[in-house]
Amino acid sequence: MLRAASEEAGRAYKRQLLDLLDLRPGHTVLDVGCGPGTDLPALAERVGAAGRVIGVDQDPAMLATARERTAAAHTVEIREADAHALPVAPGTVDRAKIDRVLMHVRSPSEVLAQLHTATRPGARVGLVEPDWDTLAVDAEDLETSRAFTRYTTEKVVRHATVGRGLARLAVGAGFRVETVLATTPVFTDFEHGDHTLGLGRNTQQAVADGHIDRGRG
């Protein structure tokens, strides 16, 4: 039951994102930073046989998985490229999404500028990014929880607070912001939370770097 609730926290925002994109048959959709292609089948289903889905990522291993996942989806194209140089013609994209990618790139503003160039007039874009500074871990030792959040924000994630600046960055890239939604995912299953947030890996590194006392928490 707890694991199901934790997994639902991740699925709910993805469903909401796809609904807000208002995907329609025949649309060309761009998934920037598609990773292993988790969302590509759902995108392809919504745009139908007349649509096209383009997944872009710079990690060959991730793209290999994406190709396997979408092998039967003939409307899906997988392209290896840097998000700062999107491999699509200007003004050809009807819908686009960036989901937990801007926090990792060199320049979020440059990526959004590229995306603005790629989209048609009237296109719709969905951006999803966390604000790691708001991360709260339910630990018995409150200071350890705070230390973990500080370590993650300052040492692990490149642009840890990009989530709070999405509207500003989008406007700066030339987009008009219609909707801003803030959600609070709650993970009650450690394994699923660890998979999504890297709790175990980051905690071990924080201890090794001396940011968290091994004897506390």
Automatic annotation (TrEMBL):
Question: Carries keyword Ion transport?
Answer: no
The Gene Ontology biological process terms listed for this entry are:
antibiotic biosynthetic process; methylation
Keyword set, alphabetical order: Methyltransferase, Transferase
Question: Which CDD domains has this protein been placed in?
Answer: AdoMet_MTases (cd02440)
Listed InterPro entries: Methyltranfer_dom, SAM-dependent_MTases_sf
Q: Which GO terms describe its molecular function?
A: methyltransferase activity
Q: Where is the Methyltransferase domain positioned along the sequence?
A: 25-134
- The molecule here is called Methyltransferase domain protein
